[in-house]
Amino acid sequence: MKKKRFTPQQISVILKEYDQGKSVEDIVREHNVSRASFYKWRQRYGGMEASELKKLKALEEENRRLKQMYTELALDHQLAKEIIEKKL
Asked: What's the per-residue H, E or C state across 42-77?
């Protein structure tokens, strides 16, 4: 899996720079971030503190793991149903 390049704290600092009046062009150039990423961060994390952002990232990661676990269990269940049907 691809490792994220920016930590929640770094994203929070970048967004605060924008809130303090720094232009998007300067931020994009200084931090080597694409405009799309910056605007996506702003839409998603705008107004959050670093601690809130860190909690949100942790919850998103937990949600991803739970979805993966559910998918694996659903496949196991489907496989078990098919085996039982073949035996009958």
From this structure: HHHHCCCCHHHHHHHHHHHHHHHHHHHHHHHHHHHH
Cα–Cα nearest to 8, from 66, 43, 58: 58
Model pLDDT for residues 48-84, shown as the tens digit of each residue: 787 888 888 899 999 999 999 999 999 999 999 999 9
This prediction has a pTM of 0.58
Half-sphere exposure of 9 (CA within 13 A, CB side): 0
| Three-state secondary structure call for residue 37 | helix
Q: Which of 43, 12, 38, 16 is nearest to 25 (CA)?
A: 38
